[in-house]
Specification:
The protein is α/β, with parallel strands linked by helices. It has one domain (2-112, 119-257): 4-Layer Sandwich (Metallo-beta-lactamase, Chain A), CATH 3.60.15. Helix content is 22%, strand content 27%. It is built from 7 helices and 14 strands. The protein has helices at 45-51, 67-70, 73-82, 99-107, 173-179, 206-216, 233-240; strands at residues 2-7, 21-27, 33-38, 59-61, 91-95, 122-126, 132-135, 138-144, 152-158, 161-165, 184-188, 221-224, 247-249, 255-257. It has a 7-stranded mixed β-sheet, with helices on one face. Strands 7-8-9-10-11-12-13 form a 7-stranded mixed β-sheet, with helices on one face. Helix 5 (173-179) packs across helix 6 (206-216) and helix 6 packs parallel to helix 7. The relative contact order is 0.16.
Amino acid sequence: MRVHVIGCSGSFAGPDGAASSYLIEQEDAQGRLWRVLMDLGSGAFGPLQSVIDPAELDAVVVSHLHPDHYLDLTGLEVFWAYHERDDLGRLPIFAPAPLPERIAAVLGRNGDIPDGVGCAPFEHHALTDHDRFTIGPLDFETRRVLHPVEAYGFRITGGGSTLVYSGDTDACDALDELARGADLFLCEAGYIEGRDDRFTGVHLTGRRAGESAAGAGVRHLALTHIPAWTDPEIPLAEARAVHSGPITVVRPMDILEVHP
């Protein structure tokens, strides 16, 4: 399994990169390469096009409906609805149930069919807690995590390896259960200890991400969702203080290999 970091800036697009978006690639037994996009936050649709032709996407999975995780779906919808190709079909989107209404509200329309188009370009699937679904060779398991809105973390298996993506969350049992034994734990660290103690139930710190990784016995912790106003060395140091395994801070256009 391979993960392309399209965007990883926390809470909003930063000066050096877009908000959250990660492209997962996995070959099936017949050698066909499947591509699933995890989140498509503000500013991410542009750099996505430098990595792949978006028409090659097999599905999109959205962790929650804050703009830094879904807003550029509006651009992907335009691409999919009005593309010169007429064989794209409907792109599966797995997301919290209100997504179609949110996209319609952003674009100022009623319903999920773009103007001048005969059918909806997206096929919406509503996520639930403890959901399980399969996209090609990738198996997904969801858990609802701790965030101010309906939000999910994901355990993704394929090719004998396991990737866990936290989405946005504060420390919670559901996240620890998802992360257990993961080969790669792509985990947000949007806050830092001390500075952000007045906020609860929103984001992890580097320390809390490290504690989750240590307790879950993950092989590799990759910190993400660090906002532009935070020096990434701070959450990295926090995580290293409590977790002895390999830790990296992801950056835009990084490629992460997930090895079993």
